[in-house]
Amino acid sequence: MDQQDISNLLFSYARLLDAGDLEGVAGLFRQGSICTAQGTTEGYEAVLAIYEGATRLYEDGTPKTRHLTTNLAIEVDGDRATCKSYFTVMQAVAPDFPLQAIICGHYDDSFLREDGRWRFDTRWIHPQLLGDLSRHLLFDAASLSG
Known about the structure:
Blueprint: H1 2-18, H2 22-27, E1 33-36, E2 39-42, H3 44-54, E3 65-77, E4 80-93, E5 97-114, E6 117-130
Parallel strand pairs: 1-6
Antiparallel strand pairs: 1-2, 3-4, 4-5, 5-6
């Protein structure tokens, strides 16, 4: 049951982001943090600001993406857990940006169980393969390679 609950939490991040629900994404990190090579962002307000400043949303309110999370390796130890997984982000923007993978990498996540529910503690995002991110991000993707 723990592994399924953690998997569902991981997949909810992808679904919320693809729906353009940046407040929902930030809510997953209300008591957690997101870490990248550029630094650490903690808590709801800071995570929301990062996603609002980085994610291009279109007229339908979505980023026109599908975040695929695969190869989950979940380890549970009492009320703590970790997961290593891969991510691939697909995007298509009609009429001139056909479906393609725009970024791939891996996540290193840690979780805490509080009051019987799992939550994110820390998510490390490690981008590795960068494609054309110009239709997804509101900043120059070259900064991701550092």
